[in-house]
Specification:
Length: 231
């Protein structure tokens, strides 16, 4: 029995149909992958929210600060000190290599959409969560530097509207990291991982996926004296 073979035209038609179907499916698969990564990122932030709120439960409502300096009287800009991720490395919770933190996108300290490498954590604390100055003189006198004082959780008037942690840049830094690399505000926030949006954890431990225009709108009034930056 003779079997009719494909003609060149028929073969080209089959290839064209496969190409069209692939073109229709690939964007859907890419979108599904992006959604899965965003959900994983949100899950990481929710776990960090539990950690930070547990810290506040244990330590009399105090929230962790995003920067600690050894200099009580000086200004944190250009002052030798430690970001929150530095302190985690010194405690042995994250790996430290060549004066930089080794970030693994698979752990909760990192967004899974971020690239693996050496640098700051790609989650940053809200810059208004205060700088803490720590030295013997300040502690013995029981005084702190006014606006850069500690912050207690119960003093936040609207915990569901005040940011705590969110996607930020992955810039490599040394121990004296600049706040632009550790903090989450429009100049350092990273909107590229989740289709022009970022994930943000709030003081009350809920997480929102926020579009860039919403974050920038919130941040334009009176030197960011508005949600989600100030309490």
């Amino acid at each position: 029995m003779n079997r009719k073979s494909f003609t060149m035209v028929e073969l080209l038609v089959v290839i064209a149909v496969i190409t069209i179907l692939a073109g229709m499916l690939l964007p859907a698969l890419a979108k599904a992958r992006s959604t899965a990564i965003r959900i994983k990122c949100i899950g990481n932030l929710k776990q960090l929210g539990l950690v930070f709120n547990h810290y506040a439960d244990v330590y009399n409502e105090w929230l962790p600060a995003r920067w600690v300096s050894e200099n009580y009287s000086g200004n944190h800009h250009g002052t030798y000190g430690y970001s929150w991720i530095d302190l985690l490395s010194y405690s042995g919770l994250v790996k430290y290599e060549n004066f930089s933190v080794r970030i693994n996108p698979k752990n909760i300290l990192s967004c899974p959409a971020a690239s693996k490498g050496t640098g700051s954590t790609n989650f940053g604390l809200n810059t208004t969560l205060r700088i803490q100055y720590m030295n013997a003189s300040a502690q013995s006198r029981g005084v702190w530097k006014g606006a850069d004082d500690f912050l207690k959780r119960h003093t936040v008037r609207n915990p569901s509207s005040v940011a705590m942690i969110g996607d930020c840049n992955e810039t490599t830094y040394q121990i004296d990291a600049s706040q632009a690399q550790d903090d989450i505000y429009p100049l350092a926030a990273n909107f590229s991982r989740h289709d022009s949006s970022l994930n943000m954890l709030f003081i009350d431990a809920h997480v929102e996926n926020m579009r860039k225009n919403k974050v920038l709108y919130w941040a334009t009034t009176a030197i960011r004296f508005s949600k989600p930056w100030f309490y």
